[in-house]
Design goal:
It holds the Pfam family DegV. InterPro entries: DegV (IPR003797), DegV_C (IPR043168), DegV_domain_contain (IPR050270). It comes from Anaerococcus tetradius. Keywords: Lipid-binding. GO terms for molecular function: lipid binding. 41% of the residues lie in helices and 24% in strands. By secondary structure, the protein is an alpha/beta fold. The longest helix has 15 residues. The protein has two domains: 155 residues, Rossmann fold (3-Layer(aba) Sandwich), CATH 3.40.50.10170; 130 residues, 2-Layer Sandwich (Hypothetical Protein Tm841, Chain: A,domain 3), CATH 3.30.1180.10. The chain has a four-stranded parallel sheet, with helices on both faces. It contains eleven helices and 13 strands. The two termini are 36 Å apart. Helix 3 packs across helix 4.
C-alpha cells in the first residue's frame, strides 16, 4: 500500500499546533484588509483579535478563492515526492474553489500520470471541514487505504452538522446575505438567525430566534435531536467563534453538561476567510449526526 497525504485548506479553522498534531497538509488562501494582503494561516500573519477589531471599526475585508494555478503549485512537491493525495475542499456551495481544484487535478495528470489526487467536496466550511479531516486521519491510522478513505468521505461528509449564528446582523447585511432593513429589524428585536448547511453545501437560515440565550439553548436542543445517538453522542464536537470566546466557553460547558459521553470538545477561532462574511460575535458548533439529506 503506497503512502499518501491527507490535505485540506486553511478554511478548516483549526490551529497550527492541532494541524501539526494531526499530520495533515494544507494550502492557505488569502484576504485583503485595509489595502494589505494577508494569508489565512490560523492567525499567524494577523492575529484574529486584531482582524475582528478592524471589522468592528468599520473595515470590510475581502477574500479570494484559491485558483487553479495555486492548487497546481501546492500539489507539485507532494507529487514529486511520489505521494498520492486525498484533498478536502471548501464547500462548492460557498466558493468556486472546488471547480478550480478539479481543473488543477486534470492538468497535473499529464505530468504525473502515475500519481492520483482524490478530491472531496466537503459541502461544509470552517471547523466542520476540520472535524471531517480529524476522522479521516483516525481511519488512516487504523490502516484504511486512500481509496477506502475517499469513498468513506464521499459517503459520510453530509453527516457533519453545523449550527452557526451571530447576534450582530450587520456583517451578514454587509455581505449581501441579508438586507439592511431586515438586519435593522432583527437588531431591534434581538433576532439571531440559526444558520445551517443543506445537502448541497449551501448555507440557509433554518430558524429566527429571539435573544442569544434562546439561540444557544436551541443549538443544544437541535444537537440532541440530530446527533448520532442523541444525548448518548460519543464523538467529537468542535465549537468555534469570532472574537466571542466567553460564549464559546459557555457553549462548551453546556455541551459537557448535556452530553455525558463526549470524546472531545475543542474551541477554535473562526478564521478570516469565513469570518469576513459572518463577522465578529459569531458562534458555531459542529458534530456528527443524521445526514443533511434527511
Amino acid at each position: 500500500m503506497s503512502d499518501f497525504i491527507i490535505s485540506s485548506e486553511s478554511i478548516m479553522d483549526l490551529t497550527n499546533e492541532y494541524v501539526k498534531e494531526l499530520g495533515v497538509s494544507f494550502i492557505k488562501s488569502n484576504y485583503e484588509l485595509n489595502g494589505k494582503i494577508f494569508l489565512d494561516d490560523f492567525g499567524k500573519s494577523l492575529d484574529m483579535d486584531s482582524f475582528y477589531k478592524d471589522m468592528e471599526n468599520g473595515s470590510s475585508p475581502s477574500t479570494s478563492a484559491i485558483n487553479t494555478q495555486e492548487y497546481i503549485n501546492y500539489f507539485k512537491q507532494m507529487l514529486e515526492e511520489g505521494k498520492d493525495i486525498l484533498h478536502v475542499c471548501l464547500s462548492s456551495g460557498l466558493s468556486i474553489q472546488y471547480p478550480c481544484l478539479l481543473q488543477a487535478i486534470d492538468i497535473l495528470k499529464e505530468d504525473y500520470p502515475e500519481r492520483k489526487i482524490y478530491p472531496i467536496d466537503s459541502k461544509m466550511a470552517s471547523s466542520g471541514v476540520g472535524l471531517l479531516i480529524k476522522k479521516l486521519v483516525a481511519y488512516k491510522n487504523e490502516g484504511l487505504s486512500i481509496e477506502e478513505l475517499y469513498q468513506w468521505a464521499k459517503d459520510n461528509c453530509l453527516h457533519v452538522i453545523c449550527y452557526t449564528s451571530n447576534e450582530n446582523l450587520e456583517y451578514l447585511a454587509r455581505g449581501g446575505r441579508l438586507s439592511k432593513t431586515a438586519a435593522g429589524i432583527g437588531k431591534h428585536l434581538h433576532i439571531c438567525p440559526l444558520i445551517q448547511f443543506d445537502d448541497t453545501g449551501h448555507m440557509f437560515v433554518g430558524q429566527k430566534i429571539r435573544t442569544k440565550k434562546k439561540l444557544i439553548n436551541t443549538m443544544i436542543k437541535k444537537m440532541q435531536e440530530n446527533a448520532y445517538d442523541g444525548l448518548d453522542y460519543a464523538d467529537d464536537v468542535f465549537v468555534n467563534h469570532a472574537k466571542n470566546e466567553d460564549l464559546a466557553i459557555e457553549v462548551k460547558d453546556m455541551l459537557l453538561d448535556n452530553f455525558k459521553n463526549l470524546k472531545e470538545v475543542k474551541i477554535f477561532n473562526i478564521g478570516p476567510t469565513i469570518g469576513s462574511h459572518i463577522g465578529p460575535g459569531a458562534i458555531s458548533i459542529f458534530f456528527w449526526g443524521k445526514s443533511r439529506k434527511e
